Amino acid sequence: MDFLYIKALHIIFVITWFAGLFYIGRLFIYHVEAEKKDQPAKNILQTQYKLMTKRLWYIITWPSLFLASFFAFWLLYKNPIYLEMPWMHVKLAFVLALYFYHAFCHKIYKELQRNEINYSPTKLRIFNEAPTVILFAVVFLVVLKNTISWVWGVTGIILFGVLLMLGIRFYKKLRKRKSWDTSEKIK
Question: Which end of the chain, N or C, is less packed with Cβ atoms under 10 Å?
């Protein structure tokens, strides 16, 4: 198969993997927030979120991880010179971090399927930003390669993370001031 076809398939499955990771985090937050609802809403919502997360996790996210990885290994097999490039080492470190993030999501998924809630919505919102930071880092590494200073790159990622955390804190304060939940207004 031509190198560009393999590369295109790798990119497609990276996109679907990230889509799954972004959405699963939101579903975790909604599932935990449903814990504060009265019955029968709590049970209805949590049952629906369990079904949605199961489908997303096993039909989209896990297969995308395997296919993105398969095509990545194939690309490296066809072009082992990439493994000699410093930017690729940094990229692979970020990918390893993403594998750990995925594994931790699986742990949270299993806990929520058993009705174990061990994290607050705020902690999950912060946790949900990790793949965003990794995505930014990997895209900039792949596009810019050696043309960007490592110091500026790391500084940029740290600043981006700080801005995300400030945004989450601002959103939390905003939610406390004004209820975004329309079901509360119905009562």
Answer: C
Given the structure tokens 């990119």, which residue do they identify? 11
Contact 28, 124 (CB under 8 A): yes
Which own/partner pairs from 48-54 qualify as long-range (CB within 8 Å, at least 24 positions apart)?
Answer: 49/112, 50/112, 50/113, 52/27, 53/24, 53/27, 53/28, 53/109, 53/112, 53/113, 54/113
Q: pLDDT tens digits, residue range 77-91?
A: 999 999 988 888 888
The count of other CB atoms within 10 Å of the CB of residue 68 is 22
Helix pair 86-113, 130-144: axis angle to 10 deg: 160
The span from the CA of 176 to the CA of 20, in Å, is 29
**Spatial separation of the C-alpha atoms in residues 114 and 71, rounded to whole Å:** 34
Write down the pTM of the prediction: 0.81
CB atoms within 10 A of CB 70: 14
Q: How many residues does the chain have?
A: 187
